[in-house]
């Protein structure tokens, strides 16, 4: 299962995957959180982003 970094919901459909700007770890956000600009936190390095 692919989980959104912002809300923790299943993000299989319409998920965005991108590298963390600080450490390069793969981050996943659902379409809703991306559209709202919800904050995320990288589980590898703790980097915060919108």
Largest sheet data: 2 strands, antiparallel
What integer is the average pLDDT? 92
Which blocks of ≥5 consecutive residues have pLDDT under 50? none
Report the strand count.
4
Amino- and carboxy-terminal Cα gap: 23 Å
Instruction: State the helical fraction.
Output: 10-25%
The Cα radius of gyration reads 10 Å
Number of helices: 1
Residue share in β-strands? 15-25%
Q: Give, in order, the helices and strands.
A: EEHEE
Total separate domains: 1
Which structural category do the helix and sheet elements fall into?
alpha+beta
Strand order across the biggest sheet? 1-2
Large-scale geometry: globular
If you had to describe this structure to a student in words, what would you say it looks like?
It is a single chain. The chain is of the alpha+beta class. The chain has one helix and four strands; from the N terminus they run E-E-H-E-E. The chain has one helix spanning 31-36, and strands at residues 16-19, 26-29, 40-41, 48-49. The strands form two sheets. The chain has a two-stranded antiparallel ribbon with strand order 1-2. The longest helix has 6 residues, at 31-36. 18% of the residues are buried.
Task: Looking at this protein, list some descriptive labels.
two-stranded antiparallel ribbon; alpha+beta; 12% helix; globular; two-stranded antiparallel sheet; 50 residues; 24% strand
